[in-house]
Amino acid sequence: MQIVIVDDEPSICWALGELLEEEGYTATAVGSAEEALELSTTDDLRLILLDVRLPGIDGISAMPLLRERFGPVPIVVMTAFGDLSTAVRAVESGATDYLCKPLNADDVTSLLGRLLLKERSEPRAATPRRSVAPEGTLVGQSPAMQKVFKKVALAAATDVPVLITGESGTGKELIARAIHQHGSRRAQPFVPVCLPALNPGLVEAELFGHERGTFTGADANRIGLLEAASGGSMFLDEIGDTPLELQVKLLRTIEYHEVTPVGGVRPRQVDFRVIAATNQPLERLVQQGRFRADLFYRLNVFVIEAPALRDRREDIPLLCDHFLAGIECGRSSVVSDEAMEELLKRPWNGNVREFRNAIEHAAVLARGGLIAAEHLPAPSEARPDTGDVGRLSRCIVDWTDEAFPEDIDASDAELADLYSRFLSTVEKPLLEATLEKCGGNQTAAATILGIHRSTLRQKLREAGLK
């Protein structure tokens, strides 16, 4: 494989030539763009390393000439005078990548491996012919998504309130839109409202509308978002964060199909379908007094749970193709085996939203070529807030995964005491925390734990706490 180096500094040409030879490439070095254009064409040419500041024709101006001469060969721009303008011009001119001087050997070899990986190994698949899917399409073939599709179809055939639950980033609004688009109200408006995002001082006026002169700036009558959704569907996102005083008015609107504008005395009839979503367990909020039980029961008629991406990993290749098809630089991209392996094993705490960001980030870096694992951004360490029970469940699952050896053998002695090892792991911190909350009072701690005081004493001795 031949690589052409175009740089007027002999020391850089020599150093790059030595490095490329060590990596198994044939290097040809020239000192100007004019010399490069005089080189004979060869099918073995795989890459051009091009300096920006050259005598005669500069590197940026030479790029279209080199492409005309050598065809679609990757061109990597090198410069010691990099700024935003240079970077933008290089990318706009078709540079495949950008290296800053002084050059680092590791950066160069990494770039070679990334750009020429397709030449040395088979990619995951041939360059796909992707069609752009409609924005907002629900994508998936996993059992978890099949359940969602079935529930969407059932919900769309009726007009009952729907509550969509699930972690942040799982696509709850997409599910709501699918229900609307497949229902009898599809020709009418779909009005999404993120309740926490509304101005706290004007939230009632935003939802219910207002009469002229009600407050400073109310120069005319204005209908609210609830009335704007009449005939269609109202999507109440993050319903769990709704203030209690507003919950009362929402309940009345849902129950009696009427709204009263702020400053008004006569209610107006409205007719909309209610779809709500939350990433919090509303039952727990009801127990804590933060959510009205009557509103919960009114919304909790038909529940659809949006699955976390980690619970439907088999959909990741489909989602990958779907999101790549949606951006111009991704439609010809191919995902390498290593990148796909990385995508499949990540926890995706931010779910599909985080996954989409990662794919689009990688597609921009790959410039329509092979997406390697190093194109992917670092995985997010943030975990979704799924409530105390959800967080505890995930911790238990993670602990169990780590406890299992790579080759599972039910007769293995290492697995025979998994349950007892788990109990010993969680019991000590539970006892410590309960005793601390009770001020060291063992009688009170035993009562709260639901065990006899003598049993507590025995467990404290076994845990080394007494």
Structural class: alpha/beta
If you consult CATH, what is the topology of the largest domain?
Rossmann fold
Indicate how many domains the architecture comprises: 4
What is the CATH superfamily label of the largest domain? P-loop containing nucleotide triphosphate hydrolases
| Number of separate helices | 21
Strand order of the largest sheet: 2-1-3-4-5
The poorly predicted ranges are 120-127
- According to DSSP, the number of beta strands is 14
Helix coverage percent = 40-55%
Largest sheet: 5 strands, parallel
Distance between the termini: 72 Å
Q: What is the CATH top level name of the largest domain?
A: Alpha Beta
Mean pLDDT: 84
Rg, Å, rounded: 31 Å
Q: Shape from CA axes?
A: extended
Subcellular location: Cytoplasm
GO molecular function: ATP binding; sequence-specific DNA binding
Pfam family, one: Sigma54_activat
Keywords: Activator, ATP-binding, Cytoplasm, DNA-binding, Nitrogen fixation, Nucleotide-binding, Phosphoprotein, Repressor, Transcription, Transcription regulation, Two-component regulatory system
Give an overview in words.
With 466 residues, this protein is an alpha/beta fold. The protein contains 21 helices and 14 strands. The chain is extended and about 80 Å long.
